[in-house]
Give the backbone structure.
Amino acid sequence: MKYFSWLFLALFAAACAQPNEQSNTTAEPEPAIEVAPGAPKGEGIVIAALETESVEADVEDDAADDPALWYDAGQPELSLIIGSNKTRGLDVYSLSGKRLASYNVGPINNVDVRQGWLGEYDLVGGSHRVKIGMDFWLVNKNTRELEFLGSIASNLEDVYGFCLYKDPSTNEVHAFVNSKTGKVEQWMLTMDNGSMGGTLVRELQLQSQVEGMVADDELGVIYVGVEEGGIYKFGVGAGDSPKGTLVLNSNQDNLAIQYDVEGLTIYSTGPSSGYLIASSQGNNTYAVFDRSGQNEYLGSFEIKDGVVDGVQETDGIHATSLPLGSEFPMGVFMCQDGFNFDGETKVSQNFKVVDWRMISDWME
Ligand code: CA
Ligand code: CA
Ligand code: CA
Ligand code: CA
Ligand code: CA
């Protein structure tokens, strides 16, 4: 017994004396891909094609958070990446990662885009943590700038995650915003003589802290990530059940999602086919589920060092299957990188862009 006590003490002392990899904030966390048994696609390894310029923030700041895309149908290669910097606002980047504009509008946590709102407006929205509400902009298609449209105050104690939903039959857009308490508000957005408003449609209550959300417009559902509880699915209709369905294979017994569940996104391959993807922050991977049916878990992938550094501790993600010119004919997967390195040097956070073909090569 005595021997073991001393051994424990010696190990404890050694652990205290040595710099600890985990708590050293300049160290890049070890990737630890572990895939749930029976995942049909197994484990994928991809690399990013490029990264955006770093956000304006201190190296140690958790600042970049959530990417979105504005699609230029006329010149798809000129589409814009819109990323939140949760310390100061929104940044707009070209598809080569160059920052084109910064909007220092305050702490926007999550951002989302829906084009063709009411048939004519390209809408950008974000959750504003100081205003405790949502801010909205329109993309001016000529100048390609964001023009502030208005704000909606939330009734929540605080605002955190955010996403948009567009009804494909009416072109109406709803905004979903959530609180760390697990509450979600659904607002229908209105436009009246150029001034926007919103009507609270309903509230949902989840069991604990939520953040990442994504709406599947065609299938009329919204997925909400309970950071330590998995992904829940709800119908978007005002009369739909307020009781979510737990997406299969995203609970604590499964390796598909390791806490926290963060960003969620949809990659569509047809009107009702494609994938639901979740950032599994706890093991630096992305879990891929069938978009339709019971959301069967298909496998997980990881973004390793390559052209640019690999990706760790991702918050927001966004995927699109829209063709983005010759570089990205099947679209992209974009994600925040919590530990951005240029060579051996840790620099401020940014977003990485993965050519979807790399992911589809693994999926097939
Ligand atoms: Ca983070
Ligand atoms: Ca988003
Ligand atoms: Ca979070
Ligand atoms: Ca990295
Ligand atoms: Ca880098």
The radius of gyration is 20 Å. The first helix runs from residue 2 to 17.
